Amino acid sequence: MIYINLLPWREKAREQRRKQFFGAVGGAVVVGVLLAFGAHTYMNALIDHQQSRNQMLESEIRELDRKIARIRDLDEQRQALIARMEVIQTLQARRPEAVHLFDQLVETLPDGTYLNEVRQEGERIRLTGRAESNTRISTLMRRIDGSPWLADSNLQIIETREDGSLQVRDFRLDANQTRPSDVEEDS
């Protein structure tokens, strides 16, 4: 009978399978490391790309914030100009009222009545003066109430005193300045 020793062949086959196994494990480790490195590199590239997009957005947001601040400044300037224009228009519209007021004071002042002071605070007018009699003061009040530019006369003080041989009345009268309806419709 022939004696064949199969042990070295089995040893060689076992050694070859062990090398193949370690080669496959080593290849798998290398492929795993390469896949991990590739995934890590890809994720870093995505993160870098997103960060660059975020920086671009932040720079655009800063630019828009500057523009919004400029728009707010311009809007505030616009509001200030509009307020100034309204004040100027109001002053322009009210400019002739002083002339009408003095004309009305001349027309409403009866003979024997004199004004020492005319003071205006807003729409309220205070007249201080002298009259020869109480009747003249009441005539002045009726004329003020009938005037298109004056209304709501209110006698505050009336004092009678001797001025030489004459008796005079010092008075203080308040009235409101009004505007006739036809002037209001033109505005």
Q: What is the name of the CATH topology of the domain at 96-186?
A: Gyrase A, domain 2
- Helix/strand/pairing category: alpha+beta
Helix-residue proportion: 55-70%
Order of helices and strands: HEEHEEH
Per CATH, the architecture of the domain at 96-186 is: 2-Layer Sandwich
Overall, the morphology is: rod-shaped
What's the CATH superfamily of the domain at 96-186, by name? General secretion pathway protein M, EpsM
Give the topology, please.
Blueprint: H1 7-108, E1 113-121, E2 124-131, H2 134-146, E3 150-163, E4 166-177, H3 181-186
Antiparallel strand pairs: 1-2, 2-4, 3-4
Can you tell me about this structure?
- The protein has 187 residues and is an alpha+beta fold.
- The chain has a domain at 96-186: Gyrase A, domain 2 (2-Layer Sandwich).
- Helix content is 65%, strand content 23%.
- The chain has three helices and four strands.
- It has helices at 7-108, 134-146, 181-186, and strands at 113-121, 124-131, 150-163, 166-177.
- It has a four-stranded antiparallel β-sheet with strand order 1-2-4-3, with helices on one face.
- A hairpin with a 2-residue loop joins strand 1 (113-121) and strand 2 (124-131).
- Helix 1 packs across helix 2 (134-146).
- It starts with 6 loop residues before the first helix and ends with a helix.
